[in-house]
Amino acid sequence: MEKLNIWFDEEGDFLEIRIGKKKGFFRDIGDDVWERVDEEGNITGIAILNFRKRSKKELELPFELKITPIRV
């Protein structure tokens, strides 16, 4: 299972959510939102500019996120 990485730049108001560390590129999907795509074309993350401005309304992600608890 790959780790979920979340990075927020408060000064730039930029949020990035990434699954794993595969190489890839960002594809603009409009309205200051980009999806991160690996070399095979799989979506591996999302980046959102002006995140705080949007945080008061519902945000639909272009992928399904499943979170499985890890038992220690």
Would you kindly provide a written description of the structure presented here, covering whatever features stand out?
With 72 residues, the chain is mainly beta. The protein has one domain (4-54). Helices cover 6% and strands 44% of the residues. The chain has one helix and five strands. It has one helix spanning 51-54; strands at residues 4-9, 14-19, 24-30, 33-38, 43-49. Strands 1-2-5-4-3 form a five-stranded antiparallel β-sheet, with no helix packed on it. The longest helix has 4 residues, at 51-54. It is globular and about 30 Å long. The mean pLDDT is 81.
How is this fold's topology laid out?
Blueprint: E1 4-9, E2 14-19, E3 24-30, E4 33-38, E5 43-49, H1 51-54
Antiparallel strand pairs: 1-2, 2-5, 3-4, 4-5
Q: Nearest-angstrom radius of gyration?
A: 13 Å
Total helical elements: 1
Q: Going across the biggest sheet, name each strand in turn.
A: 1-2-5-4-3
- Quickly give the structural class: mainly beta
Q: What percent of residues are in strands?
A: 35-45%
Mean pLDDT equals 81
The parts where pLDDT drops under 50 for at least 5 residues are none
Overall tally of structural domains: 1
For the termini, the CA-CA separation is 15 Å
Count of distinct strands: 5
Kindly summarize this structure in a few lines.
By secondary structure, the chain is mainly beta. Helix content is 6%, strand content 44%.
Q: Keyphrases for this structure?
A:
6% helix, 5 strands, 1 helix, 72 residues, 5-stranded antiparallel beta sheet, mainly beta
